[in-house]
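Help needed: design a sequence for this.
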């Protein structure tokens, strides 16, 4: 009887081991998010009415696009940016959750005038980065570019869609 019991236990053990997966785990691969040019944007100097900078832009205006923004991106070229179009002009509050690229965040009024900046926003920082005045548009560009290009409060933007 004991011998028969041992045979049954052995048989069950063989079945259990045979049913175990022998495949090795594979790393999950995520797709990188690439830039999609959806328009052009120019920053115009307040004092001279000349173009200070030009950018190829992606436009974020749906709820999903504005919540996701530049999250999960590894890099962005110098002449690229993302323009957020908010439904109404109001105080804006951005943060850098899941954003790997240091950014300058430029807040722009409904009249398309720059009203404030949040410069050198740190990747992954979840602290609130508010506009200091009501804004309808928000332009995100690589950190340091707003100073390098001499962008100032009072300069204006002009943009077009592709």
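Sure. Designed sequence:
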């Amino acid at each position: 009887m004991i011998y028969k019991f041992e045979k049954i236990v052995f048989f069950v053990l063989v079945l259990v081991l045979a049913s175990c997966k022998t495949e090795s785990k594979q790393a999950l691969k995520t797709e990188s998010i690439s830039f999609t040019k959806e328009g052009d944007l120019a920053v115009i100097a307040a004092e001279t009415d000349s173009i200070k900078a030009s950018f190829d832009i992606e436009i974020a205006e749906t709820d999903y696009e504005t919540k996701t923004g530049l999250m999960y991106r590894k890099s962005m070229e110098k002449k690229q940016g993302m323009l957020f179009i908010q439904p109404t002009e109001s105080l804006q509050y951005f943060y850098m959750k899941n954003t790997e690229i240091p950014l300058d965040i430029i807040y722009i009024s409904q009249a398309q005038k720059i009203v404030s900046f949040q410069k050198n926003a740190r990747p992954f920082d979840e602290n609130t980065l508010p506009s200091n005045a009501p804004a309808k548009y928000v332009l995100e560009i690589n950190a340091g570019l707003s100073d390098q290009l001499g962008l100032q409060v009072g300069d204006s933007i002009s943009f077009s869609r592709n």
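The CA atoms of residues 39 and 90 lie 24 Å apart.
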